[in-house]
User: Fold this.
Amino acid sequence: MNKILITGAAGFIGSQLAHALWQKGEQVTLLDNFSYGLEDNLIFEDHDFRQEIMRDDVCDRPMLDKLFARGQFDYVYHVAAITPLPDCQVDPGKAVEVNVAGTVNILEAARKYGAKKVIFASTSAVYENCTHFPTAEDDVERTTLVYSTCKYTAEQFCRAFSETYGLPVTVLRFANVYGPHIDCLRTQPPVAGYIIRELYYGRRPVMHSTGEQRRDFVYVEDLIDLAIRVQQGSSYDVINVSTNQTYSINQVYETIARIMGKEEILPERADSSHYWYRYPALYEGSYRISEEILDNEVNKHTECSNALAKKKYGWIPQTSLEDGLRATVEFSTRVLEKVAR
Ligand SMILES: NC(=O)c1ccc[n+]([C@@H]2O[C@H](COP(=O)([O-])OP(=O)(O)OC[C@H]3O[C@@H](n4cnc5c(N)ncnc54)[C@H](O)[C@@H]3O)[C@@H](O)[C@H]2O)c1
Assistant:
């Protein structure tokens, strides 16, 4: 039995990961500050983590020091982050505090108290300006948005700690993740969660641009399978967590609408320049967000090679988009029914 810390454990991916590790018989410690996490994510049929989770912040260094001294963790999954991109853009200082300094705090505590490995949740958003597809781990170009720049900077600290101290770290760059526990309630949910919510309420989802932009979607259970496999590696590596297949936003929309029996609701089209219209601060001030950058964010193509994950860890994603979306719809519909009561 390993002792494992999971930060961000009340979020979409962290909660599912914590449950999967617990089911394997590992001794799990869960931590989240509930800035975005949900209590409901901690309730599973076979276990309820609500009383066990630590309500703490990865920016609290004295707390982390005590926790790591006491916990003597074998593996640390650093999943906590401010994840909505516009939230990072609106408050870049906070994004750096949590997404960069928070990661450094975890690395330093892991170094000091000798974790066997840190596994860091990074993102394919670091490829936002890449034009080479399928994008491999070495193909990163400069980043522009606050979220991706923070994540890329945090990756550099992972590398630096590994080189300087020999601390084993795996950076996992997740493509667009979907599945049960996706947050469909927040201001700007991930695309699948947003479509499900709007269709559930019988509203026309606002879809930016033509919808023909294509993305690489990976199912949360497949991601967890790889996240567990990478415990084996003993040095530093960066691994894409992706299917290497793409679907257009229109295809995702149509699949969800069909599963929900809402094909008659057609999306409303909006220009990419309005993408973050719910965040007026970005459109105000002396310098406003560039239309070109928004256009790139809406229309970018993501297609990430998973050849390295296959070669190094024998990982092959198993879940079809249809099956994964069906499970996502089932779960999110239950969440929305509960909210409606
Ligand atoms: N979901 C995706 O498609 C996706 C894609 C690429 C990368 N990622 C990365 O995967 C990780 C998990 O993403 P998610 O979709 O589960 O997001 P999420 O927002 O559901 O979960 C993140 C969790 O971190 C917690 N958190 C935030 N700040 C914290 C702090 N200071 N201290 C402690 N906890 C804090 C939040 O409360 C939340 O529960 C993130 O690091 C994210 O950047 C996600």
Q: What stands out?
A: The mean pLDDT is 96. Residues 207 and 269 are 5 Å apart (CA to CA).
